[in-house]
Amino acid sequence: MELKLLLLIALGLLGLFLMGSVLLKVFKFTLRLILQLLMGGVLLFLFNIFLGQLGLRIAVNPVTLLTAGLLQVPGVILLILLHYFFV
């Protein structure tokens, strides 16, 4: 009986370790995504201040935030070019 109990405890600890490592990766990914969205929002806000004087505004929505957050300045330039040519 003791051997079965020890094996079950070992399996339970292994399962907790594996689930913890998976949840940690998901948490890190989510935190990185949130930080990039915030950075994209700051970049879009700054560029909208400067480009607003020229009559050019970039809409702030999840897609533009993610584009600006992931690609940084080149992403904002891409959004400006897309807005200039297609709107």
Architecture overview:
The protein is mainly α. The protein has one domain. The chain is 86% helix and 0% strand. The protein contains 3 helices and no strands. It has helices at 2-52, 62-71, 73-86. Helix 1 (2-52) packs across helix 2 (62-71) and helix 2 (62-71) packs across helix 3. It is rod-shaped, with a radius of gyration of 23 Å. The termini are far apart. The mean pLDDT is 88.
Biggest β-sheet description: none
Low-confidence stretches: none
* Helical coverage, percent range: over 70%
How many structural domains can be distinguished in the coordinates? Answer: 1
Return the structural class.
mainly alpha
Shape: rod-shaped
How many extended strands? Answer: 0
Helix/strand order, N-terminal first? HHH
Residue fraction in strands: under 5%
- The CA-CA distance between the termini, in Å, is 74 Å
Keywords: Membrane, Transmembrane, Transmembrane helix
Transmembrane segments: 34-51, 63-86
InterPro entries: BofA (IPR010001)
Organism: Desulfofundulus salinus
For this entry, give a set of tags:
rod-shaped, mainly alpha, 87 residues
Would you spell out the secondary-structure blueprint of this structure?
Blueprint: H1 2-52, H2 62-71, H3 73-86
Short description:
It is built from 3 helices and no strands.
